[in-house]
Amino acid sequence: MDTVKIIGILGGYGPYATNDFYKTLLDNTETAKDWDHFHAILDVNPRIPSRARSFLFGEEDPTPHMLKGIERLKISGADFFVCPCNTAHYFLNKCEHLLNLPFLNMVNAVVKRIVESKMEKIGVLGSEVTVMSKLYEEKLVTAGVEVENVEDLKDVRYIIEAGKQNANILEAKELMLSLIDKFKKSGCKAIIYACTELPIILPIVDSPLQVFDSSQILAEETIKYAKN
Question: What is the pTM of this model?
Fold first, then answer.
């Protein structure tokens, strides 16, 4: 493992999602001993300005705070970084020219996986920022994949907040299952977990539809990238 890259994880958006991503990274790493795991550096800062409120209401831009986190990862020795937060990718895409550390883009990784699967129609379960900015939709439609979004984003917000607080899990799970059922009835063959809080609420094995889980896919691609 001495020749692999050091992983930087820009997280805290929110903390439970970062924790879930890191566990997924560990679970997908082939090891015989604990020292076979990757050297990873985490910058977990849940106190940066709200990404959703910045997008929706023009409140403080979180980008400068995110760039400081990336700088801390670089100074600490990370060779590249990932960010297990879909909403954050809206801001990272906008400041890509300012990134001073190689960035493994989660959205691009998920889209590539979906296109390779030959999926014809897919549902997007994501935050207001992810859906309204068409973070996935534009790339998928360009690739010939039909996309359907959730009708009421307040439902998704409730689910996401449950995951962020690790509270009201059962209620959020029932709501999530009802949303997935609507996707299924409308002809979607799969859904994107386009928020890294979602697998906390409903593990992919419990979904009645095939799931492209952004956290799982990012973990798998991070392992490949670190070994390259």
Answer: 0.95
